[in-house]
Every structure is written in C-alpha cells, then in structure tokens.
Amino acid sequence: MDGYLVGVFSNIGIISFLAVSAYVLLLAGEVSFGQQAFFAIGAYAAGMGTAMMRWPLAPALLLGASAGALAAAALGRATLRLSGLHFAIATLAFAEMVRIVFELFTWQIDIGGTLVGPNGTNGFGDIRYLFENEITPAEYLCAIYLLLALVLAVLMVLDRSRFGRALRQAGVDPVLAELQGVPVVRMRLVAAAAAGALAGLGGGLYAHLLTYVEPRNFDVMLGVHSLAYGLIGGLGTAIGPVVGVLIDIGLLESSRLFVGYRMIVFGGLVALLLIVRPRGLLDERTVHWLTTRVRDLIDAAAARRRDHPLRRR
Amino acid sequence: MSNLTIDLVQNTIDGVMVGSSYALLALGFTLIFGTMRRLNLAYGPTIMAGAYLGAYAFLHLGIGAFPVAVLVLVGAALAGLYVERLCFRPFAQTAAMASMVSSFAVWMQIEEAASLALPRHLNVFPALVSGSLGLGPLFVRLDHVLMLVIAAAATLVVHWALYRTRFGLGVRTVIDHRRAAALVGVPVRRILLLAFVLASAVGGLAGFLIAASEAQITPMFGMWATTKGLIAMMLGGLGSVPGALVGGLTLGIIEAQAQWLLGPHLRDLVAWGVLFAVLALWPGGLMGAAAVDDATAVQRRV
Amino acid sequence: MLLQLEGVTIRFGGVEALRDLDLALEPGQVLGLMGPNGCGKTTLFNVITGLVRCDAGRVVFRGQDVTRLAPHAIARAGIARTFQTVRLFPQMTVADNVAPVDAPTLPGQIDELLAAVALAHRREVLAAELSLEDQRRLEIARALARSPSLVLMDEPTAGLNARETEAMAALIRRIVMPTRALILSEHKGHVIADLCPRVMLLDQGHKVLQGPPQEIFASSAFRSCHLGVGN
User: Fold this and answer.
1) Which among A295, B97, B143, B288 could disulfide-bond with B128, CB atoms 3.0 to 4.6 Å apart, if both were Cys?
2) Structural domain of residue A295, as residue ranges?
C-alpha cells in the first residue's frame, strides 16, 4: 500500500476513536463539544510516557486512556445537573480551558542531550517511539485497526446487552428510564468515563503517529467534527460514527476534483443528506431493518436446508 | 483616585464598550435559540459572510464606511436566510441534532467561500472615526463611544420590535409555546424566518462595529463571533433578552480586567472559566429562573 | 399496609400542587382517583414514584420510607406507572421496550408478558409503528414486567373509543391480584365505577372526599368540581 494511503487510513482509524467517543456520549443523551480535550490529554500523557519516561507503547497508551477517563469522570461529576445545551457549552468551555492550559504547560527533561517534553505553544515534539523501535507505518496501521476493531466489537456486543439498552433508554428519555429502574445519573458517569478513555486512547495513537502535537490541533473544530461524524453516520450502531469519518476524510481526500472549494461541496452534501436522513445514515430504524433482513435470510436458509427433499434424516 | 482604581475603572469602561458588541451578538443568538430551540453553529459565519462582503467591496470598489455597513447587514441577513432555509426549515422540531450538524456544515461552506473571496489572512476594513476622548485620568476611544451608542440604539430598536409590533408579539408567542401560537393563527413559519433574518442583521451590525474598531477582518472571525455570542448568551441566562445584554456587558468587563491583569492567554482562560463556573453552579445563568413547574422539577431530579 | 402517604405537601413557585394529602392502600385494593384537570393527580403519581420531592410529609412503601429515594430505586422496590400521554421508547422494538434492564430476562418472560396484552405477534415491531391502543397495552406490559406490587395508571383510556375503552377495562381487571394494589386516575366515570370499589376525589391538591363511587358521583363536591360552583 502506498505511503500516502497508509497515512490517510491511519488518520481515519485514529479519528474514529474520537468519533466513537462522542457517539458513546450521544447514546447517553449528551451532546459533547469537548471530546477533543480528552484526545489532547491522552496524546500528551502517552507522549510523556514513551518520550520522557521511556515506557513501551502499550502501557503509555493505557496511561493516555486512563488519563482521559479520569478527566472525563471529573468533568462528568461537575456537570451532573446539566443537560442539553448547558451541558454542551460546559464541555466546550472545559475543552478550551484544557487547550489553553496546554499552551501554558511546559515541562521538559534532558534525554541524551536534547530537551524533550511539552513546551507550551510550541507543542510537544520528538515523540519518536515508532522510529526508535523501527515500527513501520504499515505495522502501526494494523495496530490501530486491530484496536479499533476490538473497541467496535465490544461496543456492539454491549449494545445488545442490558447495559446497552439501559444506556440508550437513559439517552432517549431519562425520566422514563429512571422509572424503569435505570440509574440514569450513574449511567451518564460511566458513559462519560468510557468516552474519555476512548478519546484518550485515540489521542495516544495520534501523538505517536504524528510524533509532534501542539495545542492548536485540539481546537473546537476537532470537537464539532467528532460530534458530527456520529450524527451523520448514524447512531444506530458503533459503526455509524466510523462511517461518518470515512465519508469526511475518505471521500474528501480522494476527491481531488474540487480542490479549493471542497468544503463548499462537502458541506452542501452533508446538509442535503441530513434533510433526507435526519438521524444519520445508520440510524436505529435502518439498523433494525438490516438486522431483521439478515435474520430473515438466515432463517430462510436454515429452513431450506431442513426441508430439502434429498436430505437424509 | 489611586492608580489601581483608575486602571480598574478604565478597564471597566473599555469592557463596557466591547461588551456592547458582545451583547448584540448574544442578542442575535438568543433570538434564534429562543424561537428555534436549537443551536445555530453558523451564526458567527453568517456575520462573517456579511463582513467579508463589506471588506470585498471596500477593497475593490473603495466605498465608504456607511455603504460598507449596509452591505455587511444585507450580506449577513442574506446568509442568515440561506442558513434558515437549508438548516432549520426542513427539519421537524424533533430533529434538533440534524439542524445543528447542518449548520456546522454550512459554517464550513461559508469559511471556505470567504477565503476564496479574500484569500489573505488580514483584510482591511474601514474604520469609523479615530481619536479619543479624555475624561480626567481616563480616556475613551471615539470609535468605541460610537460603537456603544449604535449598539444601544440597535438594542432599543429590537426591543421596540419585540414589544411594540405585531411581529414582535408573534415572536414572543412562538418563543413561549410554538404549537399554541400556530393554533391561534400566528404565521409561525414566516415569523421564524423573519426572526432569523433579524437576528442575522443584528449580528451583522455587531460584526461591522467590531471589524471597524479593529480596522481589519480575518477568517477566524466566524468562530470568534460564535464563541463570544455563545458565552455572552449563556452567562446572561439562556433565551433571555435582558440576559443577553447583561451577559455581553459582563463578558466584556471580565475580559478587559483579566487581560489587563493577566495577559491575553489567561484572559481567555478566565472567560471560559467564569462561564464554566456559572454553568456548573447556576445553570440558569445570571438572570436565570428557578423551577416553576412539574416538568423542570422532574428533570432536575434525574 | 402497602402504601401510606402522610401530610404530603408540594409547592411549585407560589402554587400548592398538593396540600396535606393522606392516603392508605392495602395489597389487592383498587383506588380510583378523580378530579378536574390540574387537581394534582399527576403530581401525586410523580411524588409516589420519586420524580418530585415533597416539601412536607412522607411516603412509606412496604414499611420503608421512600420520600427521599431516587426514582430508579423506587421503581426497583416495586412501583410501576403508566402515563397520561403514552410514553415509550419509540425507536425500540416492542420486546426491547418491555424487557427489564435491571435483571436478566428469564426465558419466555417477554413472550408471557406480551401474550397477556395480546401483543405477542408484534414482538419485533418498532413501538412508534403501533396504534394508540396497542401502545397503551405495551405500556401496561412494560409496567408489569418486574412484577410490581403497586401500579399507578394515569388515564389509561384517554384517547380510546368506547370499544377500546371496554377492552382496556377488561385488561385492567386482569391485572388486579391479591398481592398487588392499583391506583387508577380517570375522567371516565363508568370505568371508575366498574373497577374501583373506593374513589378519592381531589380538587386543587386537596383531598375533598373519599368513598364508594356512587357516593362520590352523588356528592355536591363532585358536581362543583366538575360543573362549577352553584350546580
């Protein structure tokens, strides 16, 4: 696979973590404009893990995810009483505060003669773990997608479980869900922490792919984009937000036709798509329709096999 | 007066001046949110569209400040019309998310269109007046005074429109209870459109005033205007017209004091911090209302 | 004593939605709740289920003081409720709406519940696609899913025609059990008379009268509530 494509797909994979992070919160009924904060926290934490503390990649990524989860849980507790627009703006405020803090955060240590570490607005460079351990871009791409596939599988299994149903119920109608015995507040906190972990993990992967991150990367735009992916791709399944990312980055990158006015075309397409499909492509109804069709097909195939005239009993 | 007092008062004056524009931004945001009950992420960009139209004409046709102002208002109103038709009109009340994402998509469109029209980062914009007024140890920029006066006049006009015209009555009924308004014969669709366009024009005026006081406009303006308008609106209390004013002025003063004390970075940190604190502690905003019925009380417990 | 309310008072702003309300309910009893709109019936249900906290008084369920308990804990303790305007999860299937989320579903449990309300054949249909009558039945199946000891029904026949009302009343009759109590809030007098041996009349948050349905309907209080003072 050519280097450019590896880069694009790596990007798609990593941003998918951010998109899925916003999706998990959307399931719980919360609109968050601030997932980029946990992405940033994860990036810095994981970067500090490998570049400064000389850890291997896996524990560093775990550190990033944990940092994201902790920060998200803290934010969740602070915003417990908020919902709707108030919650959304609070997350935005939080994310911007985090970004500004990173612009002021400097902590560098001497590693073999060079200063390594976050350097305020100059960002955090020399996250060279992949180079130092001779991991090729293609290998890293596989690692990213392996992790993503794992995450998606877990989410899809959880979706069919009692927990997944309870979460969706808490998101659709929190009052009704409470009356059904769902501890809505607790579910929201769990969802927030999980979303924070996902974003943190994505951030860690991001830092190592780029080897250099700066606070400017983690702005409002990133946050609104990550939210939009799930809403465009559909919230019926965890694959929805990934579809959204594919549409945005994939189509956009590959359509070299509209250089210069790509966003105008793309923005228009998205607006029109939403008129036709206000709940996104893979919304609950569509997923329900798909799963019923698939089930019918399986049933029909099984029935045909059972009733085949030549089958010996 | 001691030096510290002079500085504090000076900052407050500056803050009020800038805050008056924030108040206009918040006012437009509030009008849209109050009637639509959804977040319009393209609000700042529509103002930017108007401002860029004005800057383009200024650059290529050399017209004066007043015609530029008219162009900015018209441009913003037209952009607002576009957003309303594409992002809000086609969606049922339950599809609030779709509207929001759609407005985000249009935000992207407008930003790119603006960069295509004026590719440079810094673009000149006509200034209003120059010079300043001395009041003892304090001084006030003349263009700031003009900004304040125009913003105050615009607020009065909007207030008159909302409280002394049939259109305003229609807007207030739609804000209060859309279905009931429809049932008593209020032309809801038309009211929503007009309120949207009015909000965009108000925002356009704010945009003109701000760009004129800076004598320049950049592509960051769209996001900046949305952010300031949002913060001011939430500070004052969601969906409240007096709240928009209080929020705007408060934001202006906080920023001015914070910038003088701590510098530009920390100024933004303080602004966001104050907003976060207000939201976390008083979700109703500085002018918010407590629960007055079953529904809100129930929502609070869950 | 299954349910006991003592001196329950709730104020919203300057309005007293419920005023010093007392209520006593034993298992197996069916209590009718009547009164003009705005008299506090829904608020009463909100208090019992924990959605609204009362400003004074207590709510005791099965000997446990549940006044300050979170709604989900009260639901798990065995109180279920249906709503005046049908409230379901519209984008979820009938089966998913009924299935309890706080305990594993026993095999056949969902089918049994749906069969009891004649909805077994519509198991995989999205709730939004059901008729109003079927939606009300689904609400009842959901309410019964966790074998509640107390069921609160808020105008279950609202919006149903005469035939549908009859069918609903028959269904409600089947819900009543010696271990279960029911509070039925209704406007339709014949439904109340049919199902409730005891009726409580509320007006402006205050318990005005309590007794057998015929006595309530004949009272001057009932007439003045519903037809205005002087009737």
Assistant:
1) B143
2) 3-306
8 A C-beta contact, residue B84 and residue B196:
yes
Neighbours of A114 (CB within 10 A): 10
Query: Which among C179, C42, C101, C184 is positioned nearest to C171, based on CA atoms?
Result: C184
Q: Which helix (H) or strand (E) holds C184?
A: strand C181-185
Tell me whether residue C206 is exposed, middle or buried, using C-beta atoms within 10 angstroms of its C-beta: 0 to 12, 13 to 18, 19 or more: middle
- C96 to A181: CB separation less than 8 angstroms, yes or no: no
CB contact under 8 A, A278 and B276: no
Q: Indicate the pairing of strand C3-12 with strand C181-185.
A: unpaired
The distance of B39 to chain A (nearest Cα, Å) reads: 8
In a domain, A117, yes or no: yes
The 3-state DSSP class for residue C181 equals strand
Query: Domain holding A251: CATH number?
Result: 1.10.3470
Q: Please report whether residue A313 resides in a domain.
A: no
User: Is A176 an 8 Å CB contact of chain B?
Assistant: no
Q: Where do the domains of chain B lie?
A: 15-234
Residue pLDDT, tens place only, B129-173:
777 888 788 888 888 888 888 888 888 888 888 888 988 888 888
- Nearest chain A residue to B267 by CA distance is A100
* Pairs of CB atoms within 8 A across B/C: 26
Q: Give the tokens for residue A166.
A: 């309870």
pLDDT(B291) > 50: no
Lowest mean pLDDT segment, chosen from B242-256, C58-72, C96-110:
C96-110
For chain A, what is the domain count? 1
Pair of tokens at residue B116? 């295509």
Look at B276 and A94 and tell me if their CB atoms are within 8 Å: yes
Question: Are A173 and C87 inside 8 Å of each other by CB?
Answer: yes
Q: Within an 8 Å CB–CB cutoff, is residue C70 touching chain A? A: yes
Nearest to B279 among A89, A96, A264 (CB): A89
In chain C, domain spans: 89-146
pLDDT for residue B263: 85
Structure tokens at C32: 């009718």
